[in-house]
Design goal:
- It is a single chain.
- The protein folds into two domains: 114 residues, no CATH class; 201 residues, 3-Layer(aba) Sandwich (Rossmann fold).
- Helix content is 48%, strand content 13%.
- The protein has 13 helices and seven strands.
- The N terminus is likely disordered.
- It is an alpha/beta fold and 329 residues long.
- Helix 12 links the parallel strand 4 and strand 5.
- The longest helix is centred in the N-terminal third of the chain and has 33 residues.
- Helix 1 crosses helix 2 and helix 1 runs antiparallel to helix 7.
- Keywords: Signal.
């Protein structure tokens, strides 16, 4: 089943279950308006077909990735005629928002695979790439929801690596991403042109040891503030503790969220626990994720990442990872 047909099927199912009484065309039109994407903007089976049938798809899709789902969904629901809506406003907003989030998630995975293809063309052996936020669906969903928050403007992250987390922030709605990257692997610098080509003037990376570059950056631009601070750099105790300390002056006091990745790993867990014990931060929640090698668009796997259960056979190892969410105090 193609992705576009899958979404059409999803729309029909939700329309039926929620009591839509309008035609299929009206329901599809509501979805198109909510997603901000025309029916002609399809995700074709391969790049050649996409460019041939819809040469402006890439720019059209990317232009709408910054949409705020709840704002857009509320507008769409308010404009739906009673004969089509057939349900209370809150339910309409919630369900249309969910559909938009799923669409954006699918687009992130498409862009991510484009990034992987780009890196391979540049001679990068993908199995050698560290991290890969692609592979932790629960983490991806959690980070996506953070980036979609209407108060999120700037994301500051330690650990650009191959650019997948940066791609997620930008594709999900953050206006700007500031990354600090050690740069020990060549694929980090190779990924930068791809990110800039997809999201021009919205991304900045500072190369070097974050224990030095973050304080230096803050000294040069003391007014820079971050709504999301993502700590995913060196996983030794002194690296994690140093990043937590050095990023603290850069948090936006009006609104910020602190995210610390891999808090199940000993040194990071210890640093995070000790940092909190000093009264410098508070943990508000934890997300656990299983490592999976399912990729959207892979033959035979298709739509398994779109709100469906992950096939247990796709879990390649007993590899679970946690991500903590909180705030600076």
């Amino acid at each position: 089943m193609s992705l576009f047909l899958f979404f059409l099927f999803l729309i029909k199912c939700i329309s039926f279950s929620l009591g839509f009484s309008g035609t299929e065309e009206e329901a599809l039109g509501a979805w198109e308006a909510a997603a901000g994407v025309s029916a002609t903007v399809k995700l074709w089976e391969n790049e050649e077909d996409r460019e041939k049938n819809c040469p402006n798809c890439r720019s059209a899709v990317t232009a709408h990735l910054h949409e705020q789902p709840h704002i857009t969904a509320a507008q769409v629901c308010s404009e739906l005629p009673d004969s089509v809506q057939g349900l209370d406003g809150a339910s309409c907003v919630d369900n249309i928002s969910y559909m938009i989030e799923e669409r954006q998630l699918a687009l992130f995975y498409e862009l991510g695979q484009d990034l992987d293809a780009y890196l391979e063309e540049k001679g990068v052996d993908l199995p050698d790439v560290e991290g890969k936020s692609f592979n932790f669906l629960e983490k991806v969903r959690a980070l996506q929801k953070l980036a979609l928050h209407e108060k999120v403007d700037t994301v500051c992250e330690v650990g650009f690596n191959a650019g997948h987390s940066t791609l997620l922030w930008l594709a999900s709605g953050a206006r700007r991403v500031l990354s600090f990257e050690l740069g020990q692997y060549s694929y980090s610098s190779k990924a930068i042109p791809f990110i800039n080509s997809r999201f021009p003037n919205r991304f900045q990376v500072v190369m070097g040891d974050s224990l030095h570059t973050v304080p230096s950056f803050h000294a040069m631009w003391p007014d820079e503030r971050c709504n999301i601070i993502f700590v995913d750099g060196g996983h030794l105790y002194h690296n994690a503790m140093g990043d937590l300390e050095n990023l603290r002056p850069m948090h936006n006091e009006s609104f910020h969220i602190l995210v610390v990745d891999d808090t199940n790993q000993g040194p990071v867990a210890s640093a995070w626990r000790d940092f909190q014990s000093r009264g410098l931060a508070r943990e508000d929640g934890v997300v656990w994720a299983d490592y999976s090698e399912i990729f959207l668009w892979k033959e035979g796997n298709g739509d398994q990442r779109l709100g469906m259960e992950i096939d247990p056979e796709s879990i390649v190892a007993e590899w679970r990872s946690s991500m903590s969410f909180g705030e600076y105090l």
